[in-house]
Amino acid sequence: MSTHNHPRRIVLRSLLATGCALCMPGLSLAQGGKMSKAQAQYQDQPKGDQKCGNCMHFIAPNSCMVVEGNISSDGWCRLWVKKPVEDPVGKM
Q1: Contact yes or no for 7/44 (Cβ under 8 A)
Q2: 73 lies in a domain?
Q3: Which of 11, 35, 48, 84 is deepest in the core (most CB within 10 A)?
Q4: Average pLDDT of every residue of the chain
Q5: Residue 74 belongs to some domain of the structure
Q6: What separation, in Å, do the N-terminal and C-terminal C-alpha atoms of the chain show?
Q7: What's the confidence (pLDDT) of residue 5?
């Protein structure tokens, strides 16, 4: 597989995860349109190399775009999507 499709795969995976989360029947979103930690199955420990600190939804130092409350950079939830790595070759 070529590596130039990698960012596209990450974006598509993120859109799929977000779309699935928003389309789940019976999903009640908290204020601000975020899921509760329970709905996201949030935990304070990473799942392997997956952790909030390297998720595209994480907002440093302790917040998330899709899960409410204080979020540990070492935490994990089922909405985890790997943060895209910027390509330094294309930059000037």
Answers
A1: no
A2: yes
A3: 35
A4: 82
A5: yes
A6: 27
A7: 58
What's the length of the chain? 92
The residue assigned the tokens 């019976």 is 26
The arithmetic mean of pLDDT across residues 59-70, rounded, is 97
Number of domains in the chain: 1
Query: Which residues pair with residue 55 across a beta bridge?
Result: 82
* pLDDT level of residue 68 (50, 70, 90 thresholds): very high
Q: For position 70, which CATH number holds?
A: 4.10.490.10
